[in-house]
Amino acid sequence: CEYASFEGIAWFDQTNFGKSSWFTQTTFIGTARFSSVIFKDIAWFHQTIFQGHAYFHEAHFLGIADFSSAIFKGSSGFSNSTFELESYFSSVLFAQNAWFREVIFIEETSFNSSVFAKLTNFSKASFRSTALFNSVQIKQGFDVTGATFSKVPDFRQAHCAEAPLLDDIRILSSISMSVRHEKSPNYEIPAKYRALKRLAIQGHDHEHEVEFFAEELKARRLMVDKPNTASWWLSFLFEELSDYGRSIVKPLIYWVGLVMLSALLYIAS
Fold this sequence. Notes:
Blueprint: E1 5-6, E2 10-11, E3 16-17, E4 21-22, E5 27-28, E6 32-33, E7 38-39, E8 43-44, E9 49-50, E10 54-55, E11 60-61, E12 65-66, E13 71-72, E14 76-77, E15 82-83, E16 87-88, E17 93-94, E18 98-99, E19 104-105, E20 109-110, E21 115-116, E22 120-121, E23 126-127, E24 131-132, E25 137-138, E26 142-143, E27 148-149, E28 159-160, E29 170-171, H1 175-178, H2 188-202, H3 206-223, H4 230-242, H5 249-268
Parallel strand pairs: 1-5, 2-6, 3-7, 4-8, 5-9, 6-10, 7-11, 8-12, 9-13, 10-14, 11-15, 12-16, 13-17, 14-18, 15-19, 16-20, 17-21, 18-22, 19-23, 20-24, 21-25, 22-26, 23-27, 25-28, 27-29
């Protein structure tokens, strides 16, 4: 269906595409329905134009899914879909509401430089590999409530007219804890946490602001600074004594210990 044009409703619900599916530069003038579709091989929707609504709810992409440079002029829905391999939504225009609720991305997914013009919902989505949102433009509500990220998502240079909803998001693996010093400084991970911290500040989300700030300092100590520098030791002491300001138990323990040690020294003297 490459370079084709569908004037009415394009109804592919529950279709099983056994081979590569080519919809490159295709135009869907009416509603495009791909709900519960199985793509067993590569699904090409590069530069495709959806002038009406596009429904991919509960679709299953077993191969690579390429929607890069596509245009969704109507609302788009991918809720409860599964992407087994890499998925590309780079430079996509979502002109109306976009639904990615409870979507599962098993491999790397990229939304770099995409534009979300209306309400966008990624609530309870699962990103089991790299999630790229670099340089996205978010013009209205962006909901990632309850989303799970296996790695630190990349929101560097993201422009948000309204701060995203970050409530109850989880980052399962702390890269800053698993990666130790490299031969050359790695500024990428601290920058990712710094971008998340900026979004949390914009949304007045103080809990996540403190969390991302702590991870940023920790990542910088392990990936940029060296043990022979003062900044490394200051960061280490900040974590050891107070968990970067997040723990009240640690300073109390050290305080009680210091009082007891001082009392023993006084008695001994």
